[in-house]
Amino acid sequence: MPLRRLAPALAVSMMAALAPALATTPAAAAPSPGAVPPATHAPGNLTWRGCGPDLPAALECATVRVPLDYQRPRGPQLDVAISRIAATDPAKRRGALLINPGGPGAWGLDMPAYLQGAFPASVRERYDLIGLDPRGVGSSAPVTCGLSPEELDGERAYTTAAFPRHTAVTRSIADKCREKYGAATLKHFTTRNTARDMDLIRIALGDRKLNFLGYSYGTYLGAVYAQMFPRRVDRFILDSAIDPGNAWRESFRGWAPEAERAFQRWTAWTAARSTSYGLGATPAAVSRTFWEIVAQADREPVRVGSALFDGAQLRAVSRTKFFTLRAGAEWVVTLKKAAAGETTPELPPAYYWDDNATAMFWTVVCGDAPWSKDPESYRREAIRDAVRYPLYGDYAGNIAPCAFWEKGAEPATGIDNDVPMLILQNEWDSQTPLTNARGMRRALDGSRMVTVDEGEGHGVYGTLVSDCAESVANAYLLTGRLPVQDTTCGANPAQRQRTGGKAPVPLPGVGPLQVR
Q: pLDDT digits over 401-426, tens only?
């Protein structure tokens, strides 16, 4: 679901914006890899103030100063913005609950306001809800690279003719960011350093341990924090999980086979309801209906509302819809009418990631883990995946800016620990498929996983997908006790977004993708 827009970030270079705050004292001795420098705020002594007109009035905001490079803790500094809705009963307060909406590149200052209605009173009275714009994002020294509309659109279907252009565009993204900030600066905008920032935030809040609710990319961030600071983990909920062993290239390629599984499920469900939808009485017939529309759009674009779609664009738009059975059927009914020349309703406005979100997405995923630097390797994978996974393989396998990005400051973080955490996962999640969550569960020996059987959508907690799963999460937040073993919950009869709630930001795939 689209994130509400915050105040536009100033379109100035990060280092210019930070210049007045740059430290000039000599660098101190480098800390150990997991260590953090002394807090620049006395514990529990942050200055809280109003957040301004662009954020809900219920929020208070503050900043925590962190080093750009934790190996040079007295070097250049960043101001990281955080927000708070205080616990409703100070006498029962047990700590702060830091919330991350995903991304990377998504801002989160407004998360406490949007999620406060999702928590029961018993949780709200015990926890301060803390939002965060991670380093480089939103109000925290935003990174912007001056990207063009073509560079902001991360979905690119491979063709032999288009691949040289795709290579040039992805190279341009990397070049623009590097030319503006320099690789020596960008390499410090990583998940590991965001985890270190979280630990400084914990110190500044005056808490001995950290509580955390992370969605999507936030599950990887939480797992990295737990790997680096295992003794500082209190109650961690990882909702809609990344497989840390596949970060990042293979995570995105994994969208293609999972889309095929979802499509097969959808064709069977829709065929069983042929009298309602008229798309075919067998799974094969339903599949044929869809692919005939795609073939027609490849010959001549199909108009849906006032928007024109070629076949590749229809495949991309349809991918997420097939994970939600009823929505997928209604969508293809609309496509069938459009292909027959009928007038169809206007589509909701498309949401695109802006320059800041796109730049930070690539900065983080390209710096976190190694990527192939050979453009031809992406061509080979896109060709192979297109054949094996015709719905989305050519998109997921295509070239990315990471082919031209400098490596990060540190090696990729291996996740393998027994820190107790709770994983929540829908069975049918288009952005972080169930196979991803199972990979996270294998990496976290001490965790427990709650799978929502037939749960659809990206995000469990606060989305009304499963009262059962939310009850398990609430009990964990209140008692600290995990289920005895991994468990399965049923989905609610009517899966719908909580009124006034905010869904986790969809994890971008082969690029910061349009949310359809």
A: 999 999 999 999 999 999 999 999 99
